[in-house]
Amino acid sequence: MRLLPRLSMPYLPFALCALPPLPYVPYHHCLMCLTRLALCALLALPYVPYLAFFALSALPRPFALCVLPRLCFICLTPPFHTLYLALAFSLRFYAVMNSVINRSRIMKPKVTLVDDIVRARLHAAPHTGHRDEKRLGLHLLTVVDFARERIFPVAQALPLRPAPSVWGERNTIFGNANDLVHGMVPTLLSPSESATTSSSNPPSKSSASTGRFAREAASAPPTPNVICALDASPSPTEPSDALALRLRQINCIYPASTWSAYLDAANLSEKYPYLVSGFRFGFIFDFPSISVTQTPPNKFSTPELATEFTKIVRSELQKDRYIGPFSRASLESHLGPFQTSPFSLIPKAGKPGKFRAIQNFSFPPVVSPAFPNPSINSFTSAVNFPCTWGSFAVASFLLGNLPPGSRIATRDVAEAFRSVPLHPSQYPAAVVRVGEDEFCVDTCGAFGARPSGGVYGHIQDAAVDIFRSQGIGPITKWVDDHIFAQVPVASLVSYNTFRASVRTFFASNGPHHAGGRLWYGAGSFSDASLRESDDDYRFPLLDLSNNSPRSANDSLFAYNMEDVDDLSRHLGIPWESSKDVPFSSAALYIGLLWDLSTSSVSLSPKKTEKYLAAIAEWSKRSTHSLDDVQQLYGKLLHASLVIPEGRAYLTGLETMLGSYGDSVLSSRHPPRSICGELDWWSASLRNSLLSRPIPLPKELVDIQAFSDASSGVGIAIVIGQHWRAWRLIPGWRTLNGSRDIGWAEAVGFELLIYAIAGSDESRRSFKLFGDNKGVVEGWWNNRSRNSAVNSVFRRIHTFLAASDRRESFFSAYVSTKLNPADAPSRGLYPSSAFLLAPIPIPTPLAGLIIDFDAPRTAKELQLGRFPPPLNTPSTPSRFSRLLQHTVNPSPSCPRPYPKDLTPRVSILRPHCHARDRLRRWLPSSTRLNSSSSGAVSDEDLERILQVIGARWETSTKELYGSGLLIYHVWCDTRGIEDPQRCPADNVLILNFISSCAGAYSGSSLRNIYFAVRAWHILHGRPWKINSDEIEAALEGASKLAPPQSRRPKRKPFTPTILSQIHEHFDMTSSLDVAVFACLTTIFWSAARVGEFTLPNLKAFNPTKHVKVSDVSHSTDRQGNPVTRFRLPHTKCSPTGEDVFWAAQSGVTNPESAFQTHITLNKPLPHEFLFSWNNTANQRRPLTRTKFLERVNKAVTAAGLEPLQGHGLRIGAVLEYLLRGVPFDVVHVIGRWSSDAFILYLRRHAVIIARYIQDTPYHQDFIRYTMPPVR
């Protein structure tokens, strides 16, 4: 206590304000220390006024606010207890910072004071004492390092962890530790302190840091390249001096200031906030504090391995990554107690005489008297050090979406983990035993330490992001293995457009954190929707082809390897040049061969040979250890990335993996099934076609295909409204439970695949529904733990491989109550009019299932079972013909239903396009099953539906399909069954209209009503509705419509607007010329936009859409020229109509615009009239979407309000009327069959003005309305 006057006054406030919250200590547990507490409080009283003044005036505002809560944190009433602790902290802090004072004298009272607190806690709660002791130790370190950083800027600060999202307090001290002893802190040196230890026999090698992997010549004096050191001093030659220097100065190959500049420039500093601190001060790996020295021996089975280990140690010493050697006593004097992890060496695959050093940080596996300390890895977790991994899914999405002509190359980082500097606090747990009483301190990350992969991966995450920020990419990585992709300069714009299109998706879906992995994306392979990436796509690729001289071939691509090398030199990334694979169309990555030319991924021949050799080696032994099983399972699991069906042939190994329990060192006999599985693998690996297409997200066709099984009756499948069922023969269930209801559900799934595969020739990918999660999710993984179900999966895989239909069927779960196959599986069969054709029963299923309508078997007769009757006996229709209408009425996959308009799943209402609902959604009874004559065949019914359905145009069917959806969703919510929905009675329709009133506009509700009416008419159901009542209800609903449902009147285009936007069209651009010609043609002919554009690129039909050959020119008797366009098919006239325009003055002249289009784009006679060439010189018809997109872009550029396409037709009506063209002439120009065009009128007064003057200008009006004078 006599040393208190020598404490510098500023130290104590900083220590107190940095004091972390301490564990709660109940009041009565501290009574034993009351005397000492009171004494120390009295000694501390002189500091209280100064502290209060300092807290209120000198401290920064955040610190001033946090002082009092921290001082009063512990429950012992006043801040005296905290001051007592602060006193201990200050003594410790002062001892570390002021080396001139006798360290032993000042540390002794410090230990006594701290031990008082610790012993009180141990006495109060022995089972938590060591945890609290560790927390207190962490607080001491935190206070010391904080004060050193704030008061001595040149000193090291406590480095923060690499991943802020996973940083937190953890108990990392042994449960059997002795009283707190920190060997590290007393030996920390201040920046001004120099090492004084010398040796009379200096070693022949230097242990000082050089900062380089290559050692300088022995004759040259060692010159350190301490990039991250704060105070570079001459290199010491004694291990003790080298260690003392390394405790102050971290040696790191990565230039922290350079990385900081790049991260700041790319706005990545927030993403990697602690990376640069790690470079400067070392990374914390969560290694525990060591209280008892433990040095297990290394494990070398042969003298050759021991010699090789000696070479490794010598190399590490030369590269300044090891410091030493030390004796145990000497090292304990520097670090305190320490722990080593045993070394072992394993041969490197394919490299004779080369070995990989592995440090077993997981030793000992269990605590024993010989080794009382738990393993180092038991205190660490990869979860706390996450990074991205370029997995198979990530590589598939990246490489599969590259533009044609791209190339890939691979590179490895040299000695990746060894480039990661450790924080000095980690050294006691990273010591290496190199001899009987010789030890080296390892100052870098080691292979075998659980956090090494994550910490290094975090560094490389930042490096890859820096590459991306400089326009280099795409890139992905697996630890130190990197794959670089080159994009052709010609495809750079389109590929950046693709990257921009997925940027929003990945930004809103990530980063995710699971285990030690970070990634972006969503979806899964199970439904072909997986989009996964280690890149958030924030940076576009840049054209760097002109950055430096390069070959003609390299100049075709956005960057080359020299650009990578140049940036790598700045960042200090050491590539292993001997492993570089130059750019080409194919490369090996994660053990797989990725071929961009064929868009495929395959198992490399080297891996294939290795895996076959492993199988052969396995077969030589009758028993196997857990390590044997893990090795073989890992190899074949890797091969299943290319052979997905192989997962179904790994179940034996998976069973064996779980059989060892705690007997991890024992050997066991494999299950009998493994022999057959390995035979299958041997045969598959010898197949020369070990490849698959690179898996990418794909659209699944939803044909409403369901399967289900009932243990009491049988199995059923439903496709749309078609179905088939089978009965389960008594005795199908096995006693051991392997063949149970799950097996029956799997058989239903199998039969559903056979039905679709036998009828679909397009080889599309389908979504199939089932209500058994074991089967559905088992198919996601391509295997099942249930042996009987797994046998079914194997049979399906064999069938799909033989028919080249791999990855064509994806399972999805549906609840039983929404599964339309549930009823027929229980014997409630629908009408046989929709019965699927018979499906051959596989041989393994013979004697287990039988067709639902087959005669009763002997077992069924014996048990008194009778097959359920059909609702309506009839001859089954041919599936192949009906599937054409049921499965694929439209070429594209329908969009999902809106969340608030999802109907209940029903066999009568398959998921289809809105335009197909009128035909495909069936009432519970139709013409077929209501005809009394019985003479209506399938062909007759189809013909009737086609003829009646031709009454409505496709656009009308689309509108009615939406209305029909609303009607059935309303019926679902009201619990109205199908027989009541159709035929609907008057009250039901009135109820429906009344329920919708106020939610829809009057016109929308009227369209919905007509949709339900058309549905009844098409399917031959009576429509007995009181039209007067319905009309009154519709008019009332129109008046109750919400204001927001009434769309504002469309604003018309005018010649003035056309003139203004003309300035923003490039009349040398193929697209712009086609758009402006189409725009003026639509306007001056008062046509509809859809009459001169296509709904999509593939919609052109020469019998329905206008062509160059449909254009002609005419003149009247007065010589007035007009241009005529023959529209082969219109909304109101299936036989076609004519539209006209005449030449106009100014830039809106349709004639000049049209001639410019014909001259520049040169459409062929039988090609769509407004066709154009894209940037790749590919011919494109002008679609409605592209037309409106370009027009609106020009409107916006002109500073005008957005306009709708129908505003062209409205504007034409207005312009002609304002010119004085009589109403009936405008009526003819616009081809109206009624006076509906009057709704389009704007500025009525201006139009009517000429006809209501005192002396009206009505000559034209009279000419058209009065008979000629004779």
UniProtKB/TrEMBL annotation:
Keyword tags: DNA recombination, DNA-binding, Membrane, Transmembrane, Transmembrane helix
Coiled coil region boundaries: none
Gene Ontology BP annotations: DNA integration; DNA recombination
Ranges where the record places region Disordered: 191-220
Transmembrane segments: 7-24, 36-59, 71-95
Transmembrane listed as a keyword: yes
Stretches with biased composition (Low complexity): 191-210
InterPro entries for this protein: DNA_brk_join_enz, Hepadnavirus_pol/RT, Integrase-like_cat_sf, Integrase_recombinase_N
Molecular function GO terms recorded: DNA binding
Name the UniProt record assigns to this protein: Uncharacterized protein
Organism the protein comes from: Agrocybe pediades
